[in-house]
Amino acid sequence: MIELIHCIKRGLLSLMFIQGILILFFFLFSQKIFAATETQEHSTTTFGVSLVLLGTLLLFGKIFNIVEKFKQPIVLGELIAGIILGNLIYLGISSFEGIRENTIIHFLSELGVVILLFQIGLESNIKEMKKVGVASLLVAIIGVITPFLLGAFVVGPFILPHQHPNAYIFLGAALTATSVGITARVFKDIGKMQTKEAKLVLGAAVIDDILGLIILAVVTALVKEGNVSISSIISIIAKAIAFLAASILLGDFLAKRIGDLFSKIHSGVGMKFTIALFFCLIYSFLAEQIGLAPIIGAFAAGLVLDPVQFKSFDYSSAIKDVESLAKSANSALKHKLDEFIEHHKHKHIEDIVESLGFFVIPLFFIYTGFTVDLKVLFDPQVLMLGVTITVVAFISKMISGIAAGKDVDKLLVGLSMTPRGEVGIIFATIGRTLGVLDDKIFSVIVVVVILTTIIAPSLILQRLKRTEGKQYAT
After folding, report:
1. Tens of pLDDT along 395-404?
2. Cα–Cα nearest to 337, from 352, 350, 322, 348
3. Closest Cα to residue 198, out of 468, 474, 469, 471?
4. CA nearest to 214, candidates 35, 471, 427
5. How far is CA 254 from each of CA 52, 247, 248, 344, rounded to the nearest angstrom?
6. I want to staple 410 with a disulfide (CB 3.0 to 4.6 A). Which of 86, 285, 401, 444 is the partner?
7. How far is it, in rounded angstroms, from Cα 168 to Cα 157?
C-alpha cells in the first residue's frame, strides 16, 4: 500500500512537470502561434484564437487556485491570474492583448457574474433569513450605511478631489459589500459555524447582499438618468424593492406550474437545469428592462426557485443509487443515508447550476483582473490611496458590531463583516463599465478588495483564538 501511494505521488509529480513544460512551451512560442493564425481567414482566426485564449484563461486561473494552500479564497487567485496575463505586454508578450476586445470572452465573463448572483440567490433562504433576528438586520443596515456614507461623502471627496460626484457614489457603494463566502469559509474551517457570532454574521451578510444590490440599483439608475433628486432616489429604491417582491411572489406561483408542465415533456436533469437557467436569464432581462442591473434579476430568480418546485423531475443517478442502497441497509445506516439523500435532493438545483458556474464564474474574475494595469496599481499614489481606503473599509464595517446584542463578541462580528471579495469587484466593474470610475479609482478599489480579502481572515482567526483561549489550525 505504501509503495502504491509513492507510485501515485511520483505519477502526479510527473504529470505536474509535464503540464509545466507545456505551459512554458506555450508562453515561449505563443507569439508564433498567434502570428500564424492571423494569416488565416478572419472568421477562422476569430473563433480559433478565441478558443485558445479562453482555454488559457481557464487553465491559468486554475493554476492560481494554489492560493487556497495559503488559506486565501480562490477569487483572489483568479484576480491575480488575470492581472498577470493582462500585464505580460510589459514583458514583450502581446499574445493575450486580443482578450480586451474579444466579444466572446467578454460575454462569457458577464454571464459569469449573472450565474454567480443566481447561485447566491439559490443558497439564500427567505425562511431562514426571517429567523436571524433583529440583531442581524441592524448589523447589516449599519454595515451598509456607514461605509457608503464615509466612502461617498467623506473619504472619497477628501482624498480623491476633482472627481465627478457619481465616482464618489460608486466608491461608497463598492465599500458596502461583504463577501459572505469568505466569512463563512473561515468559520467553517475551524468548526465554529454553530456559534452565535457565526449565525448572526451569516444572516447579516445575506441581508447585506440584498441591501447592497438595492444600493447598486439606485446608483446605477442615478448614473444613467443623471438625476440625483430625493424623489428619484425614493423612486428607484421603491422600484428595486417592488421588483424583488413581485419577482418572488410571481415566481413562486409560476415556477412549480412551469416545472410540472415541462416535466411532462421530459423529466430528466437536463430539463430541470434548463428551467432553472430560463428563470435566471429571463429575470435578468426583466431587471435590465426596468433600469436595474441584470444581476439583481439573477439574484431574485435564485430566491424564487426551491427544490419543492422541481419534485416532478428526476434526480441524479447517484442519488437514485443511494436510494436503492438505503432500502437494504440496517436502520441506523438507513437513517444516515436518508439524511444524505434529503440533503442532496435539496441542493440538487445548486449542484447542477454549479457545473456551469465552474466554467463562467472564474472568467469574470480573471477578466476583471486582466483589465487592471499594473502601472496604475503600483503607482505609489494609488497604493497609498488604496491603503487609506482599506483602513476606512475596516473601520466602517467593524462599527456594525455594536448592534450585535448581548452575549456576543461585537468585535468578532465587526471583523467578520470586513472582507469585500467578489462583491466589491462586481460593483467596481459595473462602475467602470458605466464610465463612472476611471482606471485610477478602479485600481484603488481592487487594492482595497485584495487587502481586505487577505487581512480579514487572519484577524478573524486571531480574535477567535483570543476569545476562546484555544489554538486552532491555520
Report:
1. 999 999 998 8
2. 322
3. 468
4. 427
5. 41, 10, 10, 24
6. 401
7. 7
Look up the CATH architecture of domain 107-468: Up-down Bundle (1.20)
Sign of the alpha-carbon torsion through 152, 158, 159, 161: positive
User: What would the grid cell of residue 465 be?
Assistant: 483564538
Dihedral through CA 125, CA 128, CA 132, CA 134, nearest 10?
80
Q: Are the C-beta atoms of residues 263 and 275 closer than 8 Å to each other?
A: no
What DSSP character marks residue 229? -
How far apart are alpha carbons 214 and 280 in whole angstroms?
18
Q: What is the pLDDT of residues 166-222, one digit of tens each?
A: 899 889 999 998 876 667 666 765 667 667 787 788 778 767 877 887 788 788 877
Query: Domain extents for the chain?
Result: 2-101, 107-468
